[in-house]
Write a structure and sequence with these properties.
The complex is a heterodimer of chains A (253) and B (153). Chain A is built from eight helices and seven strands; from the N terminus they run E-H-E-H-E-H-E-H-E-H-E-H-H-E-H. By secondary structure, chain A is α/β, with parallel strands linked by helices. The chains are: A alpha/beta (253), B mainly alpha (153).
């Protein structure tokens, strides 16, 4: 019969990350043994899926590349349908430290009203060195989002997050497409879900390439800004604070 | 004389367009949903090419000095409308294919899990018993499938 499942799930979206994915899976197993690990193989052309499976993860194999938003959403649907109470997202490129999962868990345990805990690299003073162009963009989004949601958001592009059941249900129904992390912050605000940040260390990328290359930073910035403004204008159901997450996805048109 | 020849030509072209669209719908190569836009526009085109006074009158109504410009205007508007229509259709299709891809991945994972469980069960069964041919006869397809899976790297 089915193995018994834990209450916690770690979702690792991976697109051609054969250099790092096995190590990350093993380290999540070591550092957070009460987590089930599922790798979402986003249509990789290398042996990411086989390596992840050999390292002991379950693998969701998307038949073609959906991009980070679609891949992570597959994780949300998996978490929802298999009854996980908490889901952590850990990127497959080695940028996130599996040790820091416990930081996220502790933050959520300390403040149970939080629906999402986000690891922020900018709350750790002076450690993270990204290209100036990218940092400028991130700080601009952070500034705008902080104004919009009315609480400080320092690292809106961080994908290192822990979600509770309400957030899982919301995002399994509707998760933004292209560069989802920034817009997801806005969605949480619109749906009256609470997000908090904790400082985490992040590494330079362990291999592969970021979905944000510095040459494309400007393009990325414009697209995300557009997403923020469209997100502000989108029609969404607004539930009462504390109520169940609204299901807002409109499939089809 | 020249103008009547050009009228025959435009009526002919519009008629061919209309018949072509109808034929595509009839052969189910074009969904009615998308054909509607084409049908409407080819009927309008046919109407305008038969009743020539209409063009002048419309041009006068909307204040275009040179009637053929009104044609260009309308054609441009129609093309914009079509493009928007297709963008909407493409957005919907990509959203649907995303949902399908995710569903496929989830089902595939579930199948693997099931097969692994079946294999474990089969494995213990074969352990106490002689690797029975009767078992293979009982469920040949399932066994073959399980072994094929197991053989995969």
């Amino acid at each position: 019969m089915n193995r018994l499942r834990n209450e916690h799930l770690a979702v690792i979206p991976a697109y051609n990350e054969s250099a790092t994915v096995a190590r990350i899976v093993r380290r999540v197993h070591e550092q957070a043994p009460f987590f089930d690990v599922v790798v979402v193989n986003d249509g990789s052309t290398d042996d990411t899926a086989a390596l992840a499976r050999a390292a002991g993860a379950d693998v969701l194999e998307l038949p073609f590349n959906l991009g980070i938003g679609g891949a992570v959403q597959a994780g949300f649907v998996y978490a929802k349908e298999n009854g996980y109470r908490f889901m952590a997202q850990v990127d497959g490129d080695g940028q996130h430290e599996p040790e820091e999962i416990s930081t996220l868990i502790e933050a959520m345990a300390a403040e149970p009203s939080l629906d999402v805990v986000c690891g922020s690299r900018f709350l750790v003073p002076g450690e993270y060195l990204a290209p100036v162009s990218r940092r400028t963009g991130i700080h601009l989004f952070a500034f705008l989002l902080s104004r919009i949601v009315g609480q400080p958001v320092t690292d809106p592009t961080s994908g290192f997050r822990l979600y509770n059941r309400r957030a899982i249900e919301l995002f399994s129904a509707d998760y933004p497409h292209d560069y989802p992390e920034v817009e997801a912050v806005l969605m949480l605000h619109n749906h009256r879900l609470r997000m908090g940040e904790v400082p985490v260390r992040m590494l330079e990328r362990g291999g592969g390439r970021s979905s944000i290359r510095s040459g494309k930073s400007v393009y990325y910035m414009i697209k995300v800004l557009l997403a923020i403004f469209v997100g502000l204008l989108r029609r969404r159901a607004v539930p009462e604070p504390g109520g169940p997450a609204a299901v807002a996805a409109e499939h089809g048109i | 004389m020249g103008s009547s020849r050009i009228q025959i030509l435009t009526v002919f072209v519009a008629a061919v367009l209309l018949i072509g669209v109808l034929e595509l719908v009839r052969r189910r190569r074009l969904l009615e949903r998308y054909a509607l836009v084409w049908l409407v526009s080819s009927v309008v085109l046919l109407g305008l090419s038969i009743w020539r006074g209409a063009l002048d009158r419309i041009a006068e109504q909307i204040g275009v000095a040179y009637p053929p410009n009104a044609t260009m205007n309308r054609a441009f508007g129609f093309v914009l409308w079509m493009l928007l229509h297709f963008s909407v259709a493409v957005s919907r299709l990509s959203d649907q294919s995303k949902v399908l891809a995710q569903r496929l991945a989830l089902l595939d994972e579930r199948l693997r899990r099931r097969e692994a469980a079946d294999e474990r069960r089969l494995g213990t069964h074969e352990g106490d018993d002689e690797p029975g041919e009767e078992f293979a006869e009982a469920a040949p397809a399932g066994r073959e499938h399980a072994f094929r899976r197991a053989g995969k790297p």
